[in-house]
Write a structure and sequence with these properties.
The complex is a heterodimer of chains A (322) and B (330).
Chain A lengths: L2 H12 L1 H8 L1 H18 L1 H4 L31 H37 L1 H16 L2 H12 L4 H28 L2 H8 L4 H9 L4 H25 L9 H10 L2 H4 L2 H29 L1 H34 L1
Chain B lengths: L1 H27 L4 H11 L6 H11 L7 H13 L14 H36 L4 H15 L2 H13 L19 H22 L3 H13 L2 H9 L3 H38 L5 H10 L3 H29 L1 H8 L1
Helix pairs in contact in B: 1-13, 2-3, 5-6, 5-8, 5-9, 5-11, 5-12, 5-13, 6-9, 7-8, 7-11, 8-11, 9-11, 10-11, 11-12, 11-13, 12-13, 13-14
Classes of the chains: A mainly alpha (322), B mainly alpha (330).
């Protein structure tokens, strides 16, 4: 309407952040996917008025209809509202487990890389032992030993069994940074070890940490869904994993009741895909080698255009000769 | 040789570490298995007296009179003697027997998927690195990574409901029940038919390997000897496979061994969805019945599987890469 608006819009359009998203379709698609899913799950009550635990009598196992967009379960629960409300718990579990895993990975990884010596040996041994045991099996057995697993406990179990992967990467990175000048100068200045580790060294690894965080969220959602699918977790609660468990229990796989699976599966797949795409762009920003991909893309574009021109020219030439 | 010994030493230490984990884990947990088992027994109407407690403690290898270190050494001793305890899910069978029964199918499934997946990932990785930046590259790397990040449960369920529920592929078992093959080929065909979907699911979860191969290959393609080869006029195919891929494959073999743990965990879950008679089914049965000896046996068995896979990868590297051989000789 106003002339000022257009200028303002142009400013936003050309700002660094928007330009970054424009140049990287991967990031935009990933961010949009994640935002949509977060919006749908966090604001679940805006999109559906049905309580996920409400059981509709005489509407057991019914395929999608107008009243139930995704149909109902064998117990008569509305699947659409279950998907939305269940996503909340699943994503929260993923985020909390991710935070815990990355936190433990940072603490043990950086400290063992920085201190070295017997402490490093001890931590590396623990890391190696945990990494040698198949993670899912360890996860399941710890869950079985604890018995009766709530979403909160699932976070803790995932955190305690999965930190070595992050710790190993961060340890290697710390060891390569450890002998740089800025660390020596900080040591000479008499800064405390804690400050050197977490204020001087850690910020150099923020890209690795954030990428580890994103992939750990994906892993944690996977792991919690797996745990719940196998039967740890309260079958009356509502998460994506529990929905898969209930669908499997009620024989949705054999009877071909696809609507029971559609909600949780698309939730897990789309959220995972969104996070994966975001991870690609984090890698691209932090690793200059990967930027080459963008440059190569531009190169292919130019080359294609050139080929077109050459073709045109040669066509003209043949015409002229003819 | 020195290299092999060094690796072997590491694996032996890791194995003892896993044994220690296996031994101390149940003892560190809030409710110990003996108590849990007794309470289960009690709720199902069993009579609990001192003799029962002693018997259950013996079954689980617990002894409240002995110090924990002594029972740890006893545990290690009995593991090496092949006495892994008695499973009470498959009662007359010992833990070792029941895990071995499932292990065959799991190794078959995982091995087939690893070999096929390795070939597919490597070929695609080489191709994509060669055409880096093209549309094919973006599609395959991004698509592969997204597929690899989908939980194996979900992949198995999707395959199951699209291909198995419509009766294109079987919905369970490793061979058709009550089926007597006329000849070996028919039998092999039947096994392959049943293994197709589970193997496909494991391969899909492993598709992230394309990225690894691609990164290695791109690193190799930047080396001088490749430029030299191109300048000499060596054909593209030879540069791709004979020059670049040979060197790019080495790190992939190492990372493959690391990946086995993830694939193994995934394949256990996939077996469960496809009702395949491998370790995964036995594990879930053990978990649902709180069969602690069997659970520990499976943890140990999968660890041994992983350690041996890593060891094989080490030997493969030794054969493939002359540099490690020289390093070992010094």
């Amino acid at each position: 309407m106003f002339k000022g608006d257009g200028v303002y819009m142009k400013k936003i359009w050309n700002s660094n952040i928007v330009r970054f998203f424009r140049n990287s379709p991967k990031t935009s698609i990933g961010a949009i996917l994640v935002i949509i899913i977060l919006f749908l799950t966090v604001g679940a009550s805006l999109f559906t008025s049905i309580d996920p635990t409400n059981r509709f009598d005489n509407e057991y196992h019914s395929p999608p209809s107008n009243t139930h967009i995704l149909g109902t379960t064998q117990l008569g629960n509305d699947l659409f509202s279950q998907t939305l409300y269940g996503g909340r718990v699943s994503i929260l579990v993923g985020i909390f487990a991710g935070v815990l895993t990355v936190f433990l990975g940072i603490i043990f990884g950086i400290s063992s890389g920085y201190f070295g010596g017997w402490y490093d040996n001890l931590i590396t041994t623990i890391i190696n032992i945990i990494m040698v045991v198949p993670n899912i099996v360890l996860l399941l057995i710890v869950a079985a030993l604890i018995d009766g697993v709530s979403p909160f406990l699932i976070c803790i179990i995932i955190g305690l069994t999965s930190w070595p992967w992050n710790a190993r990467v961060l340890r290697a990175q710390t060891m390569s940074l450890r002998n740089r000048e800025f660390v020596y100068s900080a040591e000479t200045l008499g800064e405390s070890k804690l400050r050197i580790m977490f204020v001087e060294i850690m910020p150099n690894m923020l890209s690795i940490i954030s990428s580890a965080f994103v992939s750990t969220i994906i892993y944690a959602i996977t792991a919690s869904a797996t745990l719940e699918f196998i039967g740890f977790g309260n079958p009356l609660s509502c998460t994506w994993g529990i929905m898969l468990f209930n669908a499997n229990k009620s024989g949705a796989l054999t009877s071909g009741a696809w609507w029971e699976l559609l909600g949780p599966i698309s939730g897990i797949v789309l959220f995972g895909a969104g996070l994966t795409l975001i991870n690609f762009s984090i890698d691209e920003v932090s690793n200059p080698k990967l930027k080459a991909q963008r440059i190569m893309r531009a190169y292919y574009k130019v080359k294609k255009a050139q080929a077109k021109i050459i073709k045109k020219l040669s066509l003209n030439n043949t015409r002229m000769e003819g | 040789m020195k290299y092999i010994l060094k690796r072997l030493w590491f694996y032996i230490m890791a194995f003892f570490g896993a044994l220690a984990l296996n031994f101390f884990l149940p003892r560190m947990m809030p409710g110990n298995p003996v108590q849990m088992y007794l309470s289960n027994l009690y709720t199902s109407g069993g009579v609990i007296d001192n003799a029962t407690i002693a018997a259950v403690e013996k079954l689980f290898g617990y002894d409240s009179n002995k110090p924990i270190i002594i029972s740890f050494f006893n545990y290690i001793g009995s593991i090496f003697k092949g006495n892994w305890g008695v499973s009470f899910t498959f009662f007359p069978q010992t833990v070792l027997e029941s895990t071995q029964r499932g292990l065959r199918w799991t190794v078959f499934l995982l091995g087939t998927a690893l070999i096929i997946g390795f070939i597919i990932n490597s070929l695609l990785g080489i191709l994509v690195a060669w055409k880096r930046g093209s549309r094919l590259d973006t599609t395959l790397t991004v698509g592969g990574q997204i597929m690899a990040n989908i939980p194996s449960v979900v992949i198995a369920i999707i395959l199951s409901i699209t291909l198995a529920a419509t009766n294109i592929f079987p919905r369970g078992y490793a061979v058709t029940p009550l089926f007597f093959a006329e000849n070996v080929f028919q039998y092999i065909g039947d096994i392959a038919y049943h293994a197709f979907l589970p193997v496909l699911a494991v391969i899909i979860t492993g598709l992230g390997g394309i990225m690894g191969m691609r990164a290695n290959m791109i690193n190799q393609l930047g080396e001088d000897y490749i430029v030299m080869g191109i300048a000499k006029g060596v054909p593209d195919k030879k540069i791709m496979f004979g020059y670049g891929a040979r060197n790019a494959l080495l790190p992939v073999v190492t990372s493959l061994a690391m990946q086995i743990g993830f694939l193994l965990g995934g394949s256990l879950i996939i077996e469960l969805v496809f009702n395949y008679p491998g370790l995964g089914q036995i594990m879930v049965m053990a978990i649902s019945r709180r069969d602690y000896p069997l659970m520990q046996g499976i943890l140990l068995m999968t660890t041994i599987l992983m350690l041996s896979a890593n060891f094989i990868a080490d030997i493969a590297i030794l054969i493939l890469d002359p540099r490690t051989r020289r390093q070992g000789g010094n």
